[in-house]
Design brief:
By secondary structure, the chain is α+β, with helices and mostly antiparallel strands. The protein contains 19 helices and nine strands. Strands 3, 4, 5, 6, 7, 8 and 9 form a seven-stranded mixed beta sheet that branches. A two-stranded antiparallel ribbon has the order 1-2. It is globular and about 75 Å long.
Length: 570
């Protein structure tokens, strides 16, 4: 069964839970973006994804990409599908109209990429970095570079890469050794090797725009000595640049996406932004990518859930205990408590995740366009604090939740025929790329929360409390978690002053606790507007019974870390 976008669920979160049309129409650039337009865009996006991209999922995995003397060929159907994608205007949804884009809200692009990732993660890796590359070039490149590359990247006519990692420099980019030497014509010569470059070489577009971190000869050591350069596969005069794909990796999953080893052999490039400010320019690209990676997690989990739910509705085994549901085949395992536990728990993560991810996409536009500076600041705070939580928590859940969905199939899930094992394999790498989940946790706690003594996190929680009523049992539960999180943040801030390693030790538990508190808030929003259909009632029950109790466990672990171990008498 190919993935099918569940547009009714998406519309419910977007319109009923988040009131997105009204929120966005309050921003000047989107005054004409009403519910009808959003419905039309999402409807056409769903049709395109279901008809053009989802059917290529298995082909991409089983045939994969091939490398021959530096040339990479993508699986059958990928090139034609990508041509239809960019010519249909899909990469340009949220790009500015003056750059060839459609000027639509970021949340529509976010939902598009959630659907694409669910349908075919390997194929979606190709355009996955386009918007981040577009923002990077738009904000930091020279006018000359923009004139040549900005519209091509905005429309997706040319794809882009992000060349950071080197064999000795993974998460620690300060160890990067690729060098850049200035030339008399204003260009630079780049020399070095980059690894794990998604889409570093392929046959999908005529040109590939590589954004490369490199070090100038007089640069200081460490991350502050890195500059950013644009080095295209094909130079403006039509000649091939000396950028070579030495091989593609043999991987656990994502066979439809070429992961390349790229060698820059005195390749021609141009500086993007200021010397020594390469990471600042690149982070524009990386932050956009991290929200999309979180949406990959949600999409992959949705795809796994769809397969498991469909299989459970047809598979008949031992008699299901308890009353029968007349909507299902007699004794179909979908009614078995063990299967309902698995399915409903993943549903709780998917729906709550959508509330948080779609809200984040909306906050990106609010931060740019809202007329009130205070509201802009709160939106920026949301994006800064919530993005690493989304990236880490929902890529984690994509892998482990997809594995739970495989369990529904029993032995059939372990064989290729049903397609669920591919999702499990594909879902493993989002926990690693665009900053590992451990890096996301450290970024959250050390660089963002403790840096201001927890004031930003306290302000975020205060914003979320608006509209909650301590007298309502559901609201009171959310408020209790917020209070616990504030108390725990203060405790960590105090204990970290005398224990320099505590924050890194506690970071993963802290991020997980924040994710669960936000998930509780998101589901309170869902519960307040959802009807009493089993679809929502069962997922909400699973959330409270099987997901949220982890919050108190995480708090207990961190409180123990903040308390010195008692002396042991010998």
């Amino acid at each position: 069964m190919d993935y099918q976008p569940r547009l009714d669920d998406i519309r419910f979160i977007l319109h009923e839970v988040l009131d997105a049309p009204a929120q966005l129409q309050a921003l000047a650039p989107f005054a004409g973006t009403d519910a009808e337009l959003m419905e039309q865009v999402l409807g056409e996006a769903g049709k395109f994804v279901a008809s053009q991209i989802a059917p290529l999922q298995r082909t991409g995995d089983e045939i994969g990409c091939t490398w021959d003397q530096g040339q990479v060929t993508t699986p059958p159907g990928f090139k034609a599908a990508y041509a239809a994608f960019w010519q249909g205007g899909w990469p340009a949804l949220a790009c500015a109209t003056e750059d060839g884009g459609q000027g639509l809200p970021a949340v529509l692009e976010a939902i598009l990429y959630e659907m694409l990732s669910a349908a075919n993660h390997g194929w979606t890796m190709a355009p996955g970095l386009l918007h981040g590359a577009y923002e990077c070039i738009r904000h930091h490149a020279s006018d000359a570079l923009k004139a040549t590359y900005l519209e091509k990247v905005a429309t997706g006519e040319w794809l882009a890469t992000m060349c950071l990692t080197e064999p000795q420099a993974g998460s620690d980019l300060g160890l990067a050794r690729t060098r850049a030497v200035a030339q008399t014509d204003g260009s630079y010569r780049l020399a070095g090797t980059k690894i794990f470059i998604s889409g570093g070489e392929h046959d999908l577009t005529d040109n590939i725009v590589h954004l490369v971190l490199a070090r100038l000869p007089d640069a200081q050591p460490g991350p502050k000595g890195l500059s950013l350069f644009l080095a295209p596969k094909v130079l403006p005069d039509g000649q091939r640049n000396t950028v070579h794909c030495d091989r593609i990796e043999e991987k656990m999953g994502l066979h439809g996406s070429p992961t390349c080893v790229m060698r820059f052999d005195e390749a021609t490039g141009w500086l993007v932004g200021e010397p020594g400010r390469g990471l600042a320019a690149m982070f524009v690209m990386m932050n956009a990518a991290r929200l999309h990676v979180a949406l990959q997690g949600i999409g992959l989990l949705e795809a796994a859930w769809q397969k498991a739910d469909a299989y459970a509705g047809e598979r008949r085994q031992m008699r299901v205990p308890g009353p029968r549901d007349n909507t299902q085949a007699a004794d179909a395992i979908t009614g078995h408590p063990a299967m309902r536990r698995l399915l409903d728990t993943q549903r709780a993560w998917i729906d709550g995740g959508r509330v948080l991810a779609y809200r984040t996409a909306m906050e990106l536009d609010i931060a740019k366009h809202h007329p009130d500076a205070t509201r802009q600041a709160s939106a920026q705070r949301w994006c800064s604090l919530v993005t690493p939580v989304l990236k880490a928590a929902f890529t984690h859940q994509a892998f482990y939740g997809a594995s739970e969905c495989l369990q529904v199939f029993g032995g059939h899930g372990y064989v290729r025929e049903w397609g669920i094992e591919q999702i499990v394999r594909d879902a493993r790498v989002p926990m690693i790329y665009e900053g590992t989940n451990e890096i996301q946790a450290i970024d959250l706690l050390v660089r963002k929360v403790l840096a201001d003594g927890g004031a930003g996190m306290a302000a975020l929680l205060q914003d979320l409390q608006a509209g909650l009523d301590a007298g309502h049992p559901g609201d009171a539960d959310v408020l209790r978690r917020f209070a616990d999180l504030r108390e725990l943040t203060a405790l960590l801030a105090a204990a970290s002053r005398t224990n320099p390693v505590l924050a890194c030790e506690a970071a993963d538990d802290y991020l997980r606790a924040v994710a669960l508190a936000l998930l509780a808030w998101a589901w309170r929003r869902i519960d307040s507007v959802a009807d009493d259909a089993p679809r929502w009632r069962q997922a909400s029950a699973a959330l409270h019974l099987r997901v949220l109790p982890e919050f108190d466990m995480r708090l207990g672990i961190m409180r123990g870390q903040c308390t010195p171990a008692p002396a042991v008498l010998v």
